[in-house]
Amino acid sequence: MRTVHFNVHFLKRCRHQLGAIRYADMLFAGKGMSKNEVEAVKWCRKAAEMGWPFSGRVLASIYFSGELVKKDNVEASKWMHVSLALLAKKRHTDPGVSAQDVATTTRY
Q1: What's the whole-number mean pLDDT along residues 19-34?
Q2: CB atoms within 10 A of CB 80
Q3: CA 11 – CA 20 distance, rounded (Å)
Q4: What DSSP string runs through 12-43?
Q5: 37 with 27: CB under 8 angstroms?
Q6: pLDDT class of 22 with cuts at 50, 70, 90
Q7: Helix axis angle, 53-65 relative to 17-29, nearest 10°?
Q8: Cα–Cα distance for residue pair 95/77, rounded to 1 Å
Q9: Structure-derived torsion over alpha carbons of residues 6, 9, 13, 14, reported in degrees to the nearest 10
Q10: b/e per residue 36-63 (b: at least 16 CB within 10 A)
Q11: DSSP 8-state assignment for residue 11
Q12: How far is the CA of 76 from the CAs of 1, 13, 60, in angstroms?
């Protein structure tokens, strides 16, 4: 349990998109801590704002479904567009991102 506590402490202070999305994932699933979906959405948003394209896709799905937040198709559309823009930018700079990654991002 001590290792998980250290990781959580580190991830909460992490100013990197991957740390933010990993922390959000831990909160969504309750891995090593209490499940807290409201806080997970906040960290998912932070990761998207820091430039992690797939967290924008997750946010779009959350807003589209209305399960964790009030259903908002405009906000869902906004985050999907952000996600696609980030993924397109990443595809230009990272040859490891494929057209399949772009295609799967458009599905809910």
Answers
A1: 83
A2: 20
A3: 7
A4: HH--SHHHHHHHHHHHHHTSSS---HHHHHHH
A5: yes
A6: confident
A7: 40
A8: 26
A9: 40
A10: ebeebbebbbbbbebebbbbbbbbbbbb
A11: H
A12: 36, 27, 4
Fold of 2-105: 1.25.40
pTM of the model: 0.67
Which residue would you say has higher pLDDT here, 100 or 74?
Answer: 74
**Quick one: DSSP state of residue 47?**
H
Tokens of 94: 């990272």
What is the average per-residue pLDDT within 41-64?
Answer: 89
Six-digit token string for 104: 């799967």
- Percentage above 90 pLDDT, the chain: 19
Domain segments of the chain as ranges: 2-105
The token duo for 9 is: 């402490």
Would you say 44 and 92 are in contact if contact means Cβ atoms under 8 Å apart? no
